[in-house]
Amino acid sequence: MAGRKQFDVDAALDAAMTRFWRAGHAATSVDDLCRVTGLNRSSLYSTFGGKDALFLRCLDRYATRYGEKYDAALSCAASDPLAAVRAFFQVTLDRIADPALPDGCLIAQSALAIPVLTEDVAARAKDALGAQRKRLRAALKASRLADQHAEDFAEHAAAVNQSLAVMSRGGASPAQLRAIVGVTVEALSHALPTHT
């Protein structure tokens, strides 16, 4: 249609995701979203359905983008579970070290805000956290770790992974974050069937 402004939906979603990631859901206003996406309110609402709907799309986009990287990292778990878990954590460490990205993790930040989020947004944040535990559990079970140990280490590794994001926001150094990962990987090495 002549005279209608065109825009890149992917670029707008990335800009909104970065804003939510940097400031959090509560501290991000519709005006902020209009500014970073370059859309007016009418276009923002007609395209994305408002702040919560846009946030859900951003959260899904983030979970998919990093979920694919985590899945690739864990793909060797059956043959080399320690390498898989190290690679899993490396995805997080690389994201934290990237100066082009905000500190922390959009999912961790959303989880911290669950008490003040709408029911739909809180449920999606919980689902995103749960997906990380599920992928870790499946990988650890593939490594022939006993079911209860796989469950326990999946919970632990997911919690450590989220804490890395929180600690990075608090100023922890890359060396401190790597040391935390090292303790977790070392503990896992003693639980694997090859260690008797």
UniProtKB/TrEMBL annotation:
Keywords: DNA-binding, Transcription, Transcription regulation. Residues 29-48 bind DNA. One of its GO terms (molecular function) is DNA binding. This is TetR family transcriptional regulator. The lineage of its organism: Bacteria, Bacillati, Actinomycetota, Actinomycetes, Pseudonocardiales. Residues 6-66 form the HTH tetR-type domain. It comes from the Bacteria. Pfam families: TetR_N.
